[in-house]
User: Which sequence fits this backbone?
């Protein structure tokens, strides 16, 4: 008898199973590729939308839908409302800071300020009287000295506002200047014209900015060499840096733009809302590059999106190397490495549309005890880069790219495959990180570190401690006034 052919329903079932298996294999292969390339859903989403633009409505709509799905898997609900921060002990504080100086000179007008800067001597304290000062650029080119810096300050934070209508606010060209307790705003008619609140250049070593609130500049601090001299050994501590609107400029947008200088300390600053909508739309919270060495980023909170949320563009938290440096601007005129022996320790980086930490040609980097939440993780890129990475809590992946070298200790991280499944186990350790509530849901895991240290909130930490930047985020909340 002739064999009977399979029933149509059985044949359809077989084909259906084969199609499902083929889909599973294709999905697995796709995840394997994306994992290897270090492509998180949040970084794939804008690429999909860009590639689908300019086609018919169906393709454009599908691209937007898929981009939204990818972004939602990685970033969560898609809420674009502002994050209201509690009072923090990180960033500018209401309590005044007074860091040296002896001879007080009072300044109550724009002309007074210019005269005081022009005639400043070591040990002078230029005290700005309460008020709002609308100024063009100012030059600080008189040298202080060790033990007798020249200080410019408000007696009490919040009493003095300087509005700069100039590409550069304070141009600091001499050593040992210190700025304290000021509120500084960019007030240019064309937004992109307000480049820097501080441009620290050439021989302006031992610069310090402490407890200032600085808003609405492309690069709030620009630091670079000039005429073969470099402004080494600077300090940026306890400042609040941000913008009230996206920066519509093709130029760099980076609140701390540090090029070719050595031995800078960037500590306990709150850096937020550095959104760039012009040019390549790539911006950074802070970077050190240009062949400098031994930069320390410590105990900072970098919130890529606080009030300015859900906008196009790539925002990176902290970086050694940034997007690279032209050789003419490098310390050695070669830039074989962008940064040597830099350290990022006990920082909290959150809500970034791209990676939280990016090392580009950064040799001998140390990434220790950082917490990254709602970012694309940590990327160490190019053969010149090497990084010791230990004690970090990374809601994302820690990856070497293009020949970067990792020396991994004991870290917590989330694989890229998990991100494509919308699974964020480390983010779930916190009560409500989307609302900036980083209290623990339950007792988090601990690890053993090589040495005791200080955490994000200034708390002493023993060798046995929790992964990431802090033991208890309540220590980062400012005491009620």
Assistant:
């Amino acid at each position: 008898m002739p064999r009977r052919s399979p029933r149509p329903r059985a044949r359809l079932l077989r084909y259906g199973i084969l199609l499902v298996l083929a889909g599973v294999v294709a999905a697995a292969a796709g995840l394997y590729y994306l994992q290897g390339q270090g492509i998180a859903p949040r970084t794939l989403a804008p690429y999909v939308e860009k590639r689908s633009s300019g086609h018919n409505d169906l393709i454009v709509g599908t691209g937007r839908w898929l981009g939204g799905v990818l972004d939602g898997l990685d970033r969560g609900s898609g809420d674009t409302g502002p994050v209201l921060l509690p009072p923090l002990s990180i960033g500018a504080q209401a309590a005044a800071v007074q860091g040296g100086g002896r001879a007080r000179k009072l300044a109550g007008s724009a002309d007074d300020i210019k005269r005081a800067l022009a005639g400043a001597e070591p040990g002078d304290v230029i005290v700005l009287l309460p008020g709002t000062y609308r100024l063009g650029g100012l030059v600080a080119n008189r040298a202080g000295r060790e033990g007798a810096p020249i200080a410019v300050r408000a007696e009490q934070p919040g009493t003095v506002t300087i509005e700069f209508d100039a590409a550069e606010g304070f141009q600091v060209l001499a050593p040992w200047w210190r700025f304290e307790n000021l509120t500084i705003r960019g007030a240019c008619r064309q937004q992109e014209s307000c480049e820097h609140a501080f441009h620290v250049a050439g021989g302006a070593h031992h610069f310090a900015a402490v407890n200032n609130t600085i808003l609405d500049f492309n690069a709030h601090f620009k630091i670079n060499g000039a005429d073969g001299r470099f402004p080494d050994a600077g300090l940026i501590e306890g400042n609040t840096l941000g913008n009230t609107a996206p920066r519509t400029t093709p130029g760099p947008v980076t609140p701390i733009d540090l090029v070719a200088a050595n031995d800078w300390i960037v500590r306990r600053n709150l850096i937020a809302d550095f959104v760039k909508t012009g040019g390549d739309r790539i911006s950074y919270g802070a970077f050190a590059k240009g062949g400098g060495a031994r930069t320390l980023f410590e105990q900072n909170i970098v919130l890529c999106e606080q009030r300015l949320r859900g906008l196009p563009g790539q925002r990176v938290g902290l970086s050694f190397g940034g997007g690279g440096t032209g050789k003419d601007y490098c310390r050695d005129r070669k830039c074989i490495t962008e940064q040597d022996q830099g350290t990022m320790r006990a920082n909290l980086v959150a809500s970034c549309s791209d990676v939280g930490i990016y090392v580009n040609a950064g040799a001998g980097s140390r990434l220790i005890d950082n917490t990254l939440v709602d970012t694309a993780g940590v990327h160490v890129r190019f053969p010149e880069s090497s990084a010791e990475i230990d004690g970090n809590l990374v809601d994302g992946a820690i990856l070497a790219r293009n020949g970067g070298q990792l020396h991994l200790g004991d870290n917590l991280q989330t694989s890229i495959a998990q991100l494509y499944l919308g699974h964020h186990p480390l983010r779930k350790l916190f009560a409500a990180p989307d609302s900036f509530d980083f209290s623990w849901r339950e007792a988090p895991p601990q690890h053993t570190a090589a040495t005791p240290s200080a955490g994000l909130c200034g708390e002493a930490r023993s060798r046995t401690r929790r992964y990431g930047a802090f033991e208890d985020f309540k220590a980062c909340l400012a005491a009620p006034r």
In short: Residues 15-75 form one domain. The chain has five helices and 42 strands. The first strand starts at residue 103 and ends at 107. The radius of gyration is 25 Å.
